[in-house]
Design goal:
Layout: E1 5-6, E2 11-12, E3 15-21, H1 31-48, E4 50-58, E5 62-69, H2 75-93, H3 97-100, E6 112-116, H4 121-129
Antiparallel strand pairs: 1-2, 3-5, 3-6, 4-5
Helix pairs in contact: 1-2
Length: about 130
């Protein structure tokens, strides 16, 4: 991450920090589930065309993921694929989750996303403001 990548018509460095939580913030992401979740998310990234650099579970009830993607893949698509596929597979593979999450949904429907670049927001603002005016 942090290095320029080349597409057919563009050069890019597009990275996201995505965070989402379990339904009702239930602390259900045990070490076995966490291990399987990481495997699933890495496979989803490979299959759907984005790269996952880091994954970590926090306090057994939320997930942090650092993702790099080509510009044509939207963040909503990335979040939808990661949450949808992982939720479906984990509920199927760990049926005990349904006892703690009674509606059969593992993830809270919302998520947090932040773009991550190699340059800070202040540096970008200054760079744009310092451009010569013709």
């Amino acid at each position: 991450m942090g290095e320029l990548r080349h597409g057919r018509t563009c050069v890019f460095n597009v990275n996201y920090h995505i965070v989402w939580s379990t339904k009702y913030r239930r602390k259900v992401l045990t070490s076995n589930i966490e291990k399987r979740l990481k495997e699933i998310l890495i496979n989803v990234g490979k299959e759907k065309g984005f790269e996952i650099a880091e994954i970590e579970v926090g306090t057994k009830d939320h997930v942090h993921v650092f993702v790099s993607a080509i510009p044509k893949i939207s963040i909503s698509y990335i979040a939808k694929m990661m949450k949808g596929i992982s939720g479906r597979l984990l509920l199927k593979e760990f049926p005990e989750l349904t006892k703690q999450l009674w509606k059969g949904e593992l993830w809270n429907p919302s998520y947090y996303v932040e773009t991550i670049g190699s340059i800070s927001e202040e540096a970008i603002r200054k760079y744009i403001q310092d451009q010569e005016k013709e």
